[in-house]
Amino acid sequence: MNKHKQFLLLTAALALVAAGCSKAATTTSTATTNTSPAAASPTPNVTKVPAKEGAAAFLKTVDGLKGQLDQKQLNEPKKRSSSFVVEWATFEDEVKLKYPELYVKVEKFLTPLEAGLTKDKLDYALLEQLNDGLKGALTELSTSLNENKGAVNDAAISGSQALQEAAKAYNKYVQDQGNQMVSLLDQLNTAVKSGDLQKAQEAYVASRIPYERIEPVIEKFKELDGVMDARVDDFKDATDPGFTGYHRIENLLFVKKTIKEAEPFSARLLEDGKKMQQSIAATNIEATDFVTGVGELMEEAQSKKITGEEERWSGATVPVLRANVEGAQQIYELVKVELKKKDAVLDEKISKTLSSVIEAMNTLSPVGPTWNEFNKIEQSKRVDLKNKLEALAEPLVKLPGTLGQ
Question: Residues 136-143: contacts with CB within 8 Å, 24+ apart?
Answer without folding.
Answer: 137/102, 137/105, 137/106, 137/108, 137/109, 138/55, 138/58, 138/59, 138/62, 138/106, 139/59, 140/102, 140/105, 141/51, 141/55, 141/95, 141/99, 141/102, 141/105, 141/106, 142/52, 142/55, 142/56, 142/59
